[in-house]
Structures are given as C-alpha cells and as structure tokens.
Amino acid sequence: MQSLQTGQWLNPPPRAELSPDGLLVETGRGSDFWRETHYGFTRDSGHFLGVETPDGFTAQVRMRARFETLYDQAGLMVRIDERRWIKAGIELSDGQACLGSVLTVDRSDWATGPFEGDPSDVWMRMSLGGGVLRLQASRDGRHWPLVRLCPFPSSERYLVGPMACTPERAGLEVRFSDWSLGPHLRKDLHDLT
Questions:
Q1: In the chain, where do the E strands start and end?
Q2: What is residue 2's predicted lDDT score, i.e. its pLDDT?
Q3: What's the pTM?
Q4: Which residues is 124 bridged to in the sheet?
Q5: Beta carbons within 8 Å of 193's beta carbon, 6+ residues apart
Q6: CA distances from 130 to 49, 52, 103, 111, 169 (A)
Q7: Could you say which residues of the chain have pLDDT below 70?
Q8: What is the pLDDT of residues 124-169, one digit of tens each?
Q9: Domains, in order of start, for the chain
C-alpha cells in the first residue's frame, strides 16, 4: 500500500496538514478542474495530492467536509496529464450536495445526481485496470454501490489521490482519512463489498 506521504501536490492548497491520521486541506479561491464543455473555459487550478501508481490499482479514501457554496467539491482524482483525468466525489450544485464525476479526455463531461446519505462523511473508491475505470461510493466504508463504469485512457503510470476545489470561494476544510492504494480488487461488477 502506498502512503499519501509519497504524493506530490498539483496546485498546493493554502493549508495542508499531512499526518498519520490523514490529510487536512483548506481550499483556495477559484480552484477547479474543468475543460471547455458548456462553459467554454479551461481550469486546472484545483488541489490534488497525486500518488504515482502503475495500471491495475484500487484507491479509496474517506472524506469529511461541510459543503456550503455552489461547486464546493472533494473526492478522488486519477490523472495522466491536464487533458486526461477523472475526478469524483461530493459537489454542491443547486443547493444540494450531489455525487458527481467529471471524466476528461480532451473535454470534460459531468455526471451528477443526489447522494442518498450524509454528504459530510463519504467514502470514495476508484478501481482502474486495462482501460476500464470503476467508481464506487459508500456511506459506511462497507457497502459500495456503483457510481460509474467508463473507459479511461491506458497508461503505464497514473497519479491518484485526494482532490478538493472551490471555484466560487476559499476556505472549504476537508478531512481525508482511511486512505488505501493497492492492487486492483478484481471483484465482480455486482459485488458491492
């Protein structure tokens, strides 16, 4: 298992405290990841602590935060470069904390829907192998419903880790804990453990 201690920051946040218990992040204003679609702009200013890993991995993390402002977001990211990445987690949209993901291969898409749980305490899991990414979310770290299954560009190496953004403000405090990064789980698609 690879530690967050080995991670490298893309756009370090104004405050980040890494300890054996996890990672505390406080976001900066105008931080975001997005490429072109609908809005017409590109932003690559979000906070991301990336741990390098080869293909065939599963990463998961628990995150706790109070989402209060439009587009407040926190979760996991897998990244090859500025044109190929996916981010997923909780994002505040239209006054509601939603479970969402943005897949970017040259341009960004956005898939989102209501989260049926406490959005202030959520677990995220990403499994990637052989060009297929499986995204899951959990309310308790034990039951893992599917959120998204999608193709993702193949690469010998990826960066994966916690991500947080606040396009409309500064000061979202996110606590990431229970980080793990290891070999792909290789579970059946309908195995929700």
A1: 8-10, 15-19, 22-26, 33-35, 42-44, 47-54, 57-65, 73-81, 84-93, 96-105, 107-108, 111-114, 121-129, 132-138, 146-151, 157-165, 173-183
A2: 84
A3: 0.96
A4: 61, 137
A5: 142, 143, 144, 187
A6: 23, 17, 17, 22, 38
A7: 1
A8: 999 999 999 999 999 999 999 999 999 999 999 999 999 999 999 9
A9: 4-183 (2.60.120.200)
